[in-house]
């Protein structure tokens, strides 16, 4: 038996204002679209903004449904739109923000497991790392240089 250690590295910025200007701009798209979320059940709104290598910015918010599992997260709403409309463009950066009517969201809120798996598919497909920035409504912003930090030991097509 041997142990395998898997390391993840994140960078943490003190606030939105500490982000590089281009990322601030992307995050502001995420904040704007977050407020358009359809989240009547959870009251938890998420915004995602994706920067493509053709300079397009794709945004998405979570879309809930009375049949709860039929809803979709903001990240996948945005990334599937990007994949559907710009299949040849590379995803360079993703900015995420979440707010809640029920509690203060002042810590970085990472993407859920299903969204990490979806992002992984595109990072592998395009063979280029994706920078992911995530925050609550306020407070620190975490950055991962690649999806791999958020989903180590991932399931991919190489095993199929
Ligand atoms: N949600 C997202 O949009 N992204 C995530 O990564 C986590 C969760 C949404 C789904 C649901 O509408 C609400 O947040 C509460 O889970």
TrEMBL record:
GO MF, any single term: cytidine deaminase activity
Catalytic reaction annotation: 2'-deoxycytidine + H2O + H(+) = 2'-deoxyuridine + NH4(+); cytidine + H2O + H(+) = uridine + NH4(+)
Domain CMP/dCMP-type deaminase: from-to ranges: 21-158
Cofactor(s) demanded: Zn(2+)
UniProt-listed SUPFAM superfamilies: Cytidine deaminase-like
Top EC class, one word: hydrolase
Keyword hit for Zinc: yes
Nucleotide-binding found in the keyword field: no
E.C. number(s) listed in UniProt: 3.5.4.5
Keywords linked to the UniProt accession: Hydrolase, Metal-binding, Zinc
Family note: Belongs to the cytidine and deoxycytidylate deaminase family.
Role description: This enzyme scavenges exogenous and endogenous cytidine and 2'-deoxycytidine for UMP synthesis.
Name of the featured protein: Cytidine deaminase
UniProt organism field: Winogradskyella alexanderae
Biological classification of the source: Bacteria, Pseudomonadati, Bacteroidota, Flavobacteriia, Flavobacteriales
Name of the coding gene: cdd
């Amino acid at each position: 038996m041997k142990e395998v250690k898997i390391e993840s590295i994140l960078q943490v910025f003190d606030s939105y204002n500490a982000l590089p200007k281009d990322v601030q701009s992307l995050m502001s798209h995420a904040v704007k679209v977050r407020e358009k979320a359809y989240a009547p059940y959870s009251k938890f709104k998420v915004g995602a903004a994706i920067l493509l290598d053709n300079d397009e910015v794709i945004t998405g918010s979570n879309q809930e449904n009375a049949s709860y599992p039929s809803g979709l997260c903001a990240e996948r709403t945005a990334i599937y739109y990007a994949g559907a409309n710009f299949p040849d463009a590379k995803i360079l950066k993703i900015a995420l923000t979440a707010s809640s009517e029920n509690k203060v969201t002042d810590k970085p809120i990472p993407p859920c497991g299903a969204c990490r798996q979806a992002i992984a598919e595109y990072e592998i497909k395009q063979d280029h790392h994706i920078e992911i920035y995530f925050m609550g409504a306020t407070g620190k912003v975490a950055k991962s240089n690649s999806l791999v930090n958020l989903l180590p030991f991932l399931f991919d097509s190489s095993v199929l």
